[in-house]
Amino acid sequence: MGNIYIKDIQFADTSKIEDGILYVDKGAVKAVALEDEHIKTVTFDIAKPGESVRITPVKDVIEPRVKVEGKGGVFPGIISKVDTVGSGKTYALKGMAVVTAGRIVGFQEGIIDMTGPGADYTPFSKTLNLVMVCEPVEGIKQHEYEKAVRFAGFRVAAYIGELARELTPDETKVYETCGIKEGITQYPDLPRVAYVQMLQSQGLLHDTYVYGVDAKKTLPTILSPTEIMDGAIVSGNCVSACDKNPTYVHENNPVVHDLFEEHGKTLNFVCQIITNENVYLADKERSSDWTAKLCKMLDLDGVIVSQEGFGNPDTDLIMNCKKIEAEGIKTVIITDE
Q1: Is the C-alpha dihedral spanning 87, 91, 93, 95 positive or negative?
Q2: Beta bridge partners of 62
Q3: Catalytic residue annotation
């Protein structure tokens, strides 16, 4: 990962990144956003930390990235082809975000206050935000509106990220993963640990996408943790904002980064296992059974399980916890209840 730190965002006649300043051509990003016929109009604004600005209703927050080496591209299955990502070299624009806004489902949209007491309750009060407000065409259904705004945000983020392709990163971090056999050989005395990430997938605009596929249509599976750094998991989630992981959080998943920090020191970070949070009991039983099965097959010593949302997904959380524990694997859960 090559990190390029953005110090300011300004509108200009040409889009470019120069001396840490992102210059944005309004006409160019507007054309990118309006490629979808479901969007009637789009306006762009810039919100900076400390300004007396409130952004609402927030749909998603995205960190622009560009893949400069290796297989595939950013946001596979959505912006790029469905090649398996997570290897090579990717640049990220740090300190800024693309924020999409649109009144899709009422109270369940988020608020970002750039100053005042509200700023303490969102990390995005500290980022330079390129905000795009999308208005839909008449008569559009909520699901079509949500998809149009979601895709427009990814297109703009990919456009902004592309501006960094020829730059030299301010900082480079290397994340190395190894195969199962290689990990056992290399770290024979370290506990084998995995991250079980529960993805919001209850439907009714409570959705997460993996390589472009709605997570509720998937079975639990194994990822290399570096895949998320290329945008393999993205948000399509309009659930209550206090319990929502926007795409930015998936790209910068703190559990993944913290486990990498300990990899080879106190533990062997084996893999990331993703599972879903469906509404029917049979689906919950199936997914938690498969998650525990994968943990056993990988001969894990411990897992961290994180949950998105609240209420109904608590059932999935405890099913996962109990079944993984029953396999003799130490389990820690992260929940906001």
Answers
A1: positive
A2: 98
A3: 238
